[in-house]
Amino acid sequence: MSTGRLGAASLAPVTETALYAPAAGQRASVKVIFANRNLGTSARVRVVLRPGAGPTVDEDYLAFDEVVPVDESRVSAVFDMENPQELLVQSDVAGITAQANGLERAV
């Protein structure tokens, strides 16, 4: 069992970024923290939990265009995932950091 940071990324605008995927035989309880490092621009962020590889579809969104004001952060609810699910994040602007924190454990 491990706890703490599971993944982190500085997001490119309008690009889905893979943030975390549990290894085979693992499950995790995860939350996502977004930090807006911009001085004058709010951000709209998305959280995607896909069942595995493939394109993102409407049903995969856990958060869609949530606003993160200038110099602030937002934390998602905690959700569970297991292999082969994958967690992706997206922002409409640069200057956004996303971090997945949580607890991993064997299935």
Largest sheet: 5 strands, antiparallel
> At the fourth CATH level, what is the homologous superfamily?
Nucleoplasmin core domain
Low-confidence stretches: none
Whole-number mean pLDDT: 95
Number of strands: 9
Would you identify the CATH architecture?
Sandwich
Report how far apart the termini are: 11 Å
Please tally the helical runs, counting DSSP H or I stretches of 4 or more residues.
0
> How would you classify the quaternary structure?
single chain
Into how many domains do the coordinates divide? Answer: 1
Strand content: over 45%
Helix content: under 10%
Based on CA atoms alone, the radius of gyration comes out at 13 Å
CATH fold name? Jelly Rolls
Query: SSE order, as H and E?
Result: EEEEEEEEE
Q: Report the principal-axis shape.
A: globular
Quickly name the level 1 CATH class. Answer: Mainly Beta
Structural class: mainly beta
Walk me through this protein's architecture.
This protein is an all-beta fold. The chain has one domain (2-106): Nucleoplasmin core domain (Jelly Rolls, Sandwich), CATH 2.60.120. The protein has strands at 2-11, 17-20, 26-36, 43-50, 61-68, 73-75, 79-82, 86-91, 96-106. The strands form two sheets. Strands 1, 3, 6, 7 and 9 form a five-stranded antiparallel β-sheet that branches. The N and C termini lie close together (11 Å). The model has no long low-confidence stretch (mean pLDDT 95).
